[in-house]
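Kindly inspect this today.
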Amino acid sequence: MSNEMSNFVFMGTPDFAVPSLRALVGMGRVAGVFTQPDAPAGRGGQPKPPPVKLAAQELGIPVFQPESLKPPEVLEQLRALAPDVIVVAAYGRILRRAVLELPPHGCVNVHASLLPRWRGASPISAAIAAGDLQTGVTIMRMGVGLDDGPMFSQRAIAIEPQDTTGTLTPKLAQLGAELLAETLPGHLRGAISPIPQNESEVTLCRTLKKEEGQIDWRKPALEMERHVRAMSPWPGAFTFWNGKLLKILRCRLADGFSGGEPGRVFAQGKAICAQTGDGALELLEVQPEGKKPMPIRDFVNGQREFATAKLGGTMDDGR
């Protein structure tokens, strides 16, 4: 099948999906874009359109924002668009069998991991938190299971020591768009045979919740340093002090200290550190509740007692 004649439907929601949408526009006609409904954002709770919606509007592509893909009328909308293939990138909705079987060339997913490692909703955060040295993207044919379909192509990149979810996501988004552009035409021509995933190597990750950002100071410093990077920018790594939430935005492993009470803050030369269950973290940037991010030194200059604080607990007992 000639890719110039291809008719696409795209499904995606966050920033990660936008480069793949733009790449798809260069390969054929995008008949419609499905994305999540506008969601309340900010203190005012005003509805905010997802990034994919804004990109589709800029590109002049019709946008559909159903609450679910289950209603018959939504399936009829999809059928009317007559896609040769549906391309999905971080859509955030489960595709039921009727949708998966609708396009003649199936549904193709741009997944932000080297499958079968990190099937699920938060593969970028999971790879950083686990200390993986590399991650990547996989172009795969979607099945009814969770990211378990056969793979068309993969490409890996290194996870740099300072990478956060916020810095790694755009790298993978661009990589995914490039690999999609290289892979999809061959799939449409029937020139690529997808390879089944090795089920013995599967690892899973779930949707992140806000409370998962909380730091457990009893864990090793190495694990907590990765946790801080994995939770950035959302939900953010946080702890409690004096009954208020304190975000730890940046930190690094502290040298030459062991022992002490987990969560106890101490000065080491000019550095401000926090003891963990094994080793210590040097705190670099924090964000007190209701305030802007600031270097740790600025925070300590205004809160002298923090230099010997005990971190952890909850709003009730984190004193």
Q: What stands out?
A: The longest strand covers residues 244-253.
